[in-house]
């Protein structure tokens, strides 16, 4: 009885020791043999409907795998373990019974003896299927290339979100791959970033997006080759655009030329009108003096003239007497001319039909002969014979401070006195001077001088 | 001395072995980020829902199972444990292999995630009949198709409860 109890107790404890957690088998084989049977695996989910594929292979390709088998245990549905199938040097398992939750253990067995084991999680060694149907389409209007491809994972339930890597290179640059990562199946490449008239190669691969499923890069898709256009769009310039650009160029050139040619005469006076120079204006209005004209105020130059001193009051009386005499009518043109000659500034007293002479008593040393006013034509004086006689009817800026009109004026037009030289009297024959008086009288009505009239006379 | 050795050999160790499962019946929910549920369990639950919708025309009576077991606070793991075991009962039905595959995935996946140490060997697994006591009155006159219909209805409700309870667990984990 004692022996029986001892035997049962010993057996009981041995059963406990055996049934307890013994750890991984690989811990028992922690020796040099572990390295000989090192292997790597990857999984592919839903390769055929609901079936998954697990593939394992030895890292050492020279290993003799004749009697070696692979087994997976744990994280399986309704079974404890499954055995791999061998195909050449690869071991694969195609099944629906992956739980996809939790860890599994893959062991290398030699004649049902575990040589090496490794803990793996099926969802962490996922290798997606390679993309396919890579296409490149050139869009002429947008000057870019649209790259599209397809992947079987778009229809899967588990591994749906992937990161795709598109790699392209110019065929003559063997190792200069350009890479682009994206999550969609469409990519746009700009034409300006590619070499013109060059042959390109492009391919795509995928990897699970690191959320729950992780793993490795898929195999590369079949390469697609395409050629970029010869030029970057210069050879295919729109003819309408070209025509417009040429016309615009010539228009601008013509405008610049005209601007340069007409600048001084036409454009500048409008844009930047110059201020009238009184001296020059007067010079222009009056006749230019002859070169041999003696314009000196030296009394000796007036020796030929008879100089008579004029009594101021007497001169005034005489002027008034002239003005009171009725004047015969004259043609309109001459009226206008004389009217222009008789225009006065606003400072003139309006009651005067004529002009009140302003004589400095005793200061004007000389005066011209009456009736011979033409001798005393002063340079630069305003004349009805000025070049702008046609225009002077409106606003001929004639300013007279002194004008003594009387009989004996010649038939010629009235030579006006120099505006700012009081004391110089010019006489005009009355017979012909009647229209002058008339013009003088009527000139008061429209008598005003503006600077603009100076400008116009230029 | 014989009595002492006999007691220690055959008395205490079995007692320890029996008492340990009762003392430690906690479930430790692994995969707390919800990745396993969202990427595996929910996929299979949705597939089962789609497969059941083709056949079902369910009544609105709530089975007694849910009156006894519910996803109350601090009892979520216990409810999922029982619900997952209940799913196994449906494997005996005359259903397609893919349907069974999804059921097994949901059931075993849930139990794996719960990682409950209580094995419950002494408990009799609940049968389908307990869930629908009203069926006792209908069994006399119902055909096999009607029975199957009822089972599918119960399964549909069970799956919805499992899904709701999982969402509650994950929502609670995110809030913490």
From TrEMBL, chain A:
Topology in membrane: Single-pass type I membrane protein
Highest taxon above the source species: Eukaryota
InterPro entries named in the record: FN3_7, FN3_dom, FN3_sf, Hempt_rcpt_S_F1_CS, Ig-like_fold
Subcellular location: Membrane
CDD domains for this protein: FN3
Pfam families found in the cross-reference section: FN3_7
Gene Ontology BP annotations: B cell homeostasis; B cell proliferation; cell morphogenesis; cellular homeostasis; defense response to Gram-positive bacterium; gene expression; hemopoiesis; interleukin-7-mediated signaling pathway
GO MF terms held by the record: interleukin-7 receptor activity
Signal peptide interval: 1-20
Main function: Receptor for interleukin-7. Also acts as a receptor for thymic stromal lymphopoietin (TSLP).
Protein name: Interleukin-7 receptor subunit alpha
Organism: Bos taurus
